[in-house]
């Protein structure tokens, strides 16, 4: 990606926002951005859905990524049984899904994520996590995988939100925790619903297509920039900083 393309994306955002983009914080999704874990989430969801006679495909869970577990289960129940799940059904299914995910997950970091985090820190910008996950097993691994990059008070998880992605609420909470305005942040997302949430929050949203979905899906959700991987984002980070005058 050339500098001119990045500059045009920044200019387009600034014209729409009515103010200069001056990033002081980067809000990272977790699964599919910091961890190469979405393949295990999708596998676990699909196996549990099949066991409960819920209509689904594995791609559904890449499209649903970013939702809370409760809302994902409701979507499956509405499709399959034309009703929402009961609280008891949600608790049982999410527990089964979490157990399967923990069994399959190898905890591998996303290639290139460490480089991106280091570059963000080198430019003096805050690093936050904004995830729909409520699985403490994965959240607790952040300090081990990315030492000193994140603090508990700069994290937004399923426990912090009422609505979850694609609602902008998680990223709006992230802005509050960072103490910045929308034009003072970046979002880094791999999921369509996450991109939609970042855009709805008024934040410059960078998509990284680390999964099986087409680029077009992420562009259609309003991504300001799109990279094929975190490694590519790391490579282009200095150009992005140049484009915003950092």
Automatic annotation (TrEMBL):
<dbReference type="InterPro" id="IPR051806">
    <property type="entry name" value="HAD-like_SPP"/>
</dbReference>
<dbReference type="GO" id="GO:0016787">
    <property type="term" value="F:hydrolase activity"/>
</dbReference>
<dbReference type="InterPro" id="IPR041492">
    <property type="entry name" value="HAD_2"/>
</dbReference>
<dbReference type="InterPro" id="IPR006439">
    <property type="entry name" value="HAD-SF_hydro_IA"/>
</dbReference>
<dbReference type="InterPro" id="IPR023214">
    <property type="entry name" value="HAD_sf"/>
</dbReference>
<protein>
    <submittedName>
        <fullName>HAD-IA family hydrolase</fullName>
    </submittedName>
</protein>
<dbReference type="Pfam" id="PF13419">
    <property type="entry name" value="HAD_2"/>
</dbReference>
<dbReference type="InterPro" id="IPR036412">
    <property type="entry name" value="HAD-like_sf"/>
</dbReference>
<keyword id="KW-0378">Hydrolase</keyword>
<dbReference type="InterPro" id="IPR023198">
    <property type="entry name" value="PGP-like_dom2"/>
</dbReference>
